[in-house]
Histidine-tRNA ligase (Candidatus Uhrbacteria bacterium GW2011_GWA2_52_8d), 92 residues
Amino acid sequence: MSELDIPRSTFYKWYAYYLDNGYDGLIDQLGGEKTPAVGFASGIERIILNLKRQNMAVPATAAPRFFVACLGETAALAAFKLTAELRRASIF
């Protein structure tokens, strides 16, 4: 549980709910609307560690050229528009 940063009691509550209902209903259990769901999770760090343990090549990734940060709703909208323009221009 410590790796997930979730209290043990919370995890077991969700897990018990999952055993009874599957993934469906977990969203509304957390306060959202009732939503049909399917689940999958994978940590990229663990995948990379396992690739290295098996002496498999880990693909290199390029460092990001830009980092767009914002504070507040007005700035978030401007940041969204900026990143959309950068992607359209194949810059980002």
Remarks:
- Residues 63 and 92 are 11 Å apart (CA to CA).
- Residues 1-61 form one domain.
- The longest helix spans residues 73-88.
- DSSP finds four helices and no strands in the chain.
